[in-house]
């Protein structure tokens, strides 16, 4: 029988690439100008081609699973909200050959050195302006040129320590710099996560391939940061704007990865020119800050007066030379688009050589001749704000692309250019190279730009051998931003030789660096304390709600004074059970999540996800649970989830100060709930069944049966839930716990007078310990509750301010 | 003219502030050829834990104080003696307003008095089509820059109602402009916006006015508190000229300068940040008394 059509065996690579068509006239990363697959890609493409669709899908699922487990997300700003979104990983890395990478690195190092000289001049004697290399208006009108920092030389002499460049491959295959990132470049941590996730996708392949590792770059930079301290006791911190920032995940991740404190402006204060962090052990000097906060927000006293994210006096600390900022405040001035128009000439002037990597051709419209040129050539340009710092593809405000406005404007493009003049800059419209991306299982060419990171070390600039690739959603070049549906990809720099294995651990040959002993910033302690309180509070509400719905299932509340009594009690706790699951419970869990959010760097990802799961479950139950048995069952599920969370945290958390605060919060809240419970349900006037309810809510049913050979009576219940030092559900037990935690916190050293907090705890313990079940009346319990509640204020004023 | 000037500014907080840090610009300036600070002291109660003297970007004497103990009040008191020098009569050698741009372009330096700092948007003064149109309507093409400054100042003085109750220190410039009322700070910001809108660099001057006028002259508005007026750049030859739109006069022997800046934010008399909650009240008293020898 004659075979017709295709041969039976198809080359798998040919099959994989059969539908891949680079766009004509646009360079492609996978296919070289000769129409052949670039050699650097061949082994990866072969490996993929030889994977079955199931294998590939499983690999991609592994990568995605890793990202979810690691809690990687980014914040997307919508018209109403700023939601956390799953990380959009493109499952195919961008591959670049080592020799080509060396050229890129060379060019970027030259550029980083040039930018250092420019920024030193802008904050120094401004000779570039005086000599005509920069127009004065471009500097004076620049919101990132911070006048209070003019004349301030950074400690150590350098403004720039960590920079990034966005680069893309232009129409003739050459690399262009699209933008300079000197303010507080993000993406390095995400690059690391992309690498880990991508290596899960191609686990078998990556172990044999010759891809440069990233860890060495981070280790070197970490050591450089530690090396910038002037004294052994100065600390290194990472300054973040806080959890609402779109890259907060990365701040927390990098802080954890490098082992530095994650700080917010309010954690810091200035004493006699020295920057300090408020810790539970008092003020501790900070010597180096890697800031992820834009300069303008850093000090409300001298910079943006509306900033609630900064530290008053920060500039004074910088002027006095007590702290090194990475990068120096004011470095953001270099990100200005308008500067790109002048850098080529400045480079030739100050270094005597041209830029090794050209930047995208740029014209500043503040000069008459340039303005005329831009008007005449608007068709092949993108025109936008001269002072904006994003790259023009992001189209962040009114822009003109190829001679047409991106948003309606009541004038011609020419008049607009004339009117806005120096406010505008024009850039040549470039088409970026494409790189393969998976779309529904097949490879398609998508536009791509790279962010490359450079860190200053003792031996000069180090370039991260890899980076962060942004991949467009569609074939056009305009929508690379993740906010606009783009995705992110790993970047592999592939060597022809074996590459050294790198880890964060120091090798035996490098000098020994002592890890800094941990300090606990007061804000972190505050959040841990309240996390403990909120979770315990939620558990108490859930137990009460379960008891309520169990009884509701047995008897309507009209027939049961106990149900009515419990309903009133719940309502007083802000959790009225009448209209289904109370908002109070949802709010309590939301508060717990917020507290956990604020300390992501100190909190296990598993713990955080367990908490997130709790909130989601409650929200779902709110819609579905029916009063009675159904809700009682639902509360049982919640209880198990809360126990899961508590177990995870208390089993696994390192027994250091942070855990002490979390535990103090929990103990304090439980002691409070128990006193209130007893005052309400062990009161002689409480309805029948109250005592059993109290024992049930306190989860002490079994213990009661074992300890007392009688049915519940007031004496046994009060004895068990208030006075039994071995029952974790007794008030005295929790007060003892608090006393123990406090005895190892700062300020409680042996052989010293008691601190006011210790005195208050001792007083509360003593007041309770001398009671008997008979003397411990409801009124006494209520008084004791007030005493315990006041401990919270004592803890706050001792440690948390 | 020699003056004795006293100023007290006090803040009272509803709740004690745990800590606070302030930057104050309250001391009359020492300006060669214009004004001499003969003597001056600043006292602060309670006693600050930190006290730093520095000069800000625009050359203003600045004091930074910090308090570490909880406090419910802070009082600043300045006592000073200032000699205000009589300038020579101003000869109008400023370019026609159409030619001012060329004068600016000829200036290539970015020193603190450079016109470039005072041309664009600043925190409290944003160029707006409304103020720019208002300014254009008062100008004729043949005017010199100095005449343009005066014309715009006179127009604002004529159209605006002085009303200490109508605005606060936080009222946006445009709101005061739309309602045509306010105090010296509003008059000054509006005039700055108008001048910048027509290409004349303009800045903010904080200072004092002599409390009681010379015999036979009317008492000036704003004399019982700190005052503000405009500084306008009238070309390379004439340089900076100060005009007081609240009183429709060129600033002269009755005006004592504290600080120069781009707008109020650069020269705010007291800028503070505290760890506290709740509101506060403030009081201010100024006395500017000529010494007749």
Automatic annotation (TrEMBL), chain A:
- Every copy of the DUF403 domain together lies at 520-800
Protein source organism: Acuticoccus mangrovi
Top-level taxon of origin: Bacteria
Q: Where is the Circularly permuted ATP-grasp type domain?
A: 93-471
Query: Mind telling me what this protein is named?
Result: Circularly permuted type 2 ATP-grasp protein
The opening ranks of the lineage are: Bacteria, Pseudomonadati, Pseudomonadota, Alphaproteobacteria, Hyphomicrobiales
UniProtKB/TrEMBL annotation, chain B:
The record's annotation in Pfam families points to:
Bact_transglu_N, Transglut_core
SMART domains, per the entry: TGc
Which SUPFAM superfamilies does UniProt cross-reference here? Cysteine proteinases
Q: Which InterPro entries match?
A: Bac_transglu_N, Papain-like_cys_pep_sf, Transglutaminase-like
* Domain Transglutaminase-like residue range list: 176-247
Instruction: Supply the name of the protein.
Output: Transglutaminase family protein
Originating organism: Acuticoccus mangrovi
